[in-house]
Amino acid sequence: MPKGAALSFLARVSMALLIVVYTFNANANSAQCESVAPGTVVKDVETTSVYMDRQSSVVDEARKKQNSIDVAPIDRAALQIAEMSNKYVTGDDCSGMRALQLLSQWASRDGLSHPVGFQGQVTSMLYGMSFVSSFGQSAELCRDADCDRTKRWLAMLADQSLTYFSASGRKRNNLFYWSSAFAVFAGRYTGRNALYERGKAGIAEGFSHIDADGFPYENSRGKRALFYNAYAFTALTWGAAGVSRDWMLEQAEANPNVVILQTRLDDYRAGKYDHSFYSTSQEIVHFPYWKLPWQVAGAASTSEACKAMDNSLRHKVLGGSTSLMLSKLWHLPQCATGN
Q1: Quick one: which of 74, 126, 129, 325 could link to 182 by a disulfide (CB 3.0–4.6 Å)?
Q2: Which ranges of 109-192 does DSSP label H, i.e. alpha helix?
């Protein structure tokens, strides 16, 4: 995209922001909004891996079923909070207040704070990322010290996850990238700059890992190698988007292999891949969540950006609607379609 077109688009967005403001009722508070009933808060996180092999490539159906049972109460809360936060972004103030109320309940009872074993750490980190993504969408409703406890809790979870997945001897794979993205989001939305910078450094390191064949660690994952390439790239993309649009684009400019990976992942989504490189037949799982920030960042106009904003595309780790999440991250005006 020509630089002039990009600047023109950003200028129009900036002008629009002077007119289109994400308003909310300054008088909205928990007394005016119907309270949400307390739910189950999980402090000790003990979950079962869905995989039956060391490569994490073969899903065992019995393990998958048990994992769903293990995470069920966390999953219900994450989906409920994400839905409420999404409704707030589209104009429902009370839904935003209820999302903050539920997050406060989890914070007050130290939810997710005691992960048991490796799989518990994975679960705590991914659902923590979900909670901070939802918090970021409704955080502007916080008044004074109302959300301080929630902020401390989210920052603690992010620090715990990044410390674990960046420990000496651990592979710098998709889990390191997700924990770095978690730190970026948590640092940004809780005002913890040191945490934010640690996450940012992890994201930058992750982009440097991309070679001409993608992610070396993920390519050893058997039939899920390409799936995990997409999963890892999603973490890096959204972690970088949590810093800024320009910083994300700078990471791609610094490593030409990023564009090669994007083409490879687009082909993978279409069911095409290099069989000579991937000796194991690849499981084709449509995982398009990495695309949106790159599409919007490269848009030459507001209408072109809005075409990419598919509000039906949802990812619970990214706070429900990825279009609404990106709109909040980059302070974009909502599209006329309501996305």
Answers
A1: 129
A2: 117-138, 148-165, 174-190
The amino acid at residue 314 is R
Instruction: Say which residue the tokens 């490539």 belong to.
Output: 57
The helix/strand/coil state of 62 is: helix
Ordered DSSP codes for 209-244: H-BTTB-TTGGGSGGGHHHHHHHHHHHHHHHHHHH-
Query: Residue 85 sits in which domain range?
Result: 3-329
pLDDT in tens, 139-188: 999 987 779 999 999 999 999 999 999 999 998 999 999 999 999 999 99
> How far is the CA of 58 from the CAs of 280, 321, 336, in angstroms?
12, 29, 43
With 0.70 as the threshold, say if the pTM is over it: yes
DSSP-derived 3-state class of residue 198: helix
CATH number at residue 145: 1.50.10.100
Tokens for 206, please give them: 């992750």
Q: Which residues contact 65 (CB under 8 A, 6 or more apart)?
A: none
Query: Which three-class secondary structure state does DSSP give residue 256?
Result: coil
CA dihedral 69, 73, 77, 79 (to 10 degrees): 10
How many Cβ atoms sit within 10 Å of the Cβ of residue 70?
18
What tokens does 66 get? 């048990």
Q: How many Cβ atoms from other residues are within 10 Å of residue 179's Cβ?
A: 29
User: Which residues, including other chains, have CB under 8 Å from residue 15's CB and lie 6 or more apart?
Assistant: none
For residue range 24-46, what is the model confidence (pLDDT) as tens digits? 333 345 458 888 888 899 999 99
**How far is Cα 132 from Cα 155, in angstroms, rounded to an integer?**
9
Residue 334: inside a domain, yes or no?
A: no
Q: Is 315 helix (H, G, I), strand (E, B) or coil?
A: strand
Please report how many Cα atoms fall inside a 13 Å half-sphere around the Cα of residue 214, on the Cβ side.
Answer: 29
- Give how many domains the chain has, as a whole number: 1
Copy the structure tokens of residue 339: 């996305």
Question: Rounded CA gap, 162 and 140, in Å?
Answer: 26
